[in-house]
C-alpha cells in the first residue's frame, strides 16, 4: 500500500473516531436492549488471496450457526427490525472503524470478499486483492444497489450463490480493476466525495 494511502487512512480514522464512538455505544445499547447478545458480528473476509481477517459489523440478523455465503432474499426473514434500520443507513458498518485503525482495510478499495469466493475464483481475486480492501470503493458506489436488488430475488442459499457468482463477482471485479489501474490519491478523494454525496456521482 502506498504510504500516502495508509497516512490518509489513519488521518480519516482519527478525524471520525470522536463522532463514531458515541454512535457505536448508543447503537450497541439499542441492540442489547431489543435483541440481546451478541451485539457485534465478526465475519471472515480476505485482505490478500491468502490472508483473512475479522470484519466487524453490528449484528443485524438472528443468529444461525449454519449461516454461510452472501446475504440474499433467503435470509430476509432473519433480519431484525433494528437491523433493517441500520442496514438502510449503513450504520451496521460503523464497527469497521476498528478494521481501518489496525490496517485490515483502507478507506477506499474493493469490498473485502469471503474466503470461499477467493478460493473458488483465484484468477479473479489474485488481481482484485492487489489493492487493499476498503470501506468504500467504485463498486460500492456504482454496483451495490443493483447487487442488493439481484440478490433480493433469491429464495434459497443455492440460488443466492448462483446469482452472486454469475452476476456479481465478474461485474464487481471489472469495476475494482478499473479503480486499481487508475489509482491516485486524488481518485481516492473523489470516491470518498461520491460516497458521502451521492448526488455528485
Please summarize what this structure is.
The protein is globular.
Written account of the structure:
With 201 residues, the protein is mainly α. It is 56% helix and 10% strand. It contains nine helices and four strands. The strands form two sheets. It has a two-stranded antiparallel ribbon. It has a two-stranded parallel ribbon with strand order 3-4. Helix 5 (122-128) runs parallel beside helix 8 (157-181) and helix 7 packs antiparallel against helix 8 (157-181). The relative contact order is 0.14. The mean pLDDT is 96.
Low-pLDDT runs: none
Biggest β-sheet description: 2 strands, antiparallel
Shape designation = globular
- Which range does the strand content fall in? 5-15%
The level of helicity is 55-70%
The span between the termini is 26 Å
Count of beta strands: 4
Total helix count?
9
Write the H/E string, N to C.
HEEHHEHHEHHHH
Strand neighbour order, sheet with most strands: 1-2
Radius of gyration: 17 Å
Protein structure class: mainly alpha
Q: Taking all residues together, what is the mean pLDDT? A: 96
Topology:
Elements: H1 3-35, E1 40-46, E2 52-58, H2 81-89, H3 96-102, E3 106-108, H4 115-120, H5 122-128, E4 134-136, H6 138-142, H7 144-152, H8 157-181, H9 185-196
Parallel strand pairs: 3-4
Antiparallel strand pairs: 1-2
Helix pairs in contact: 5-8, 7-8
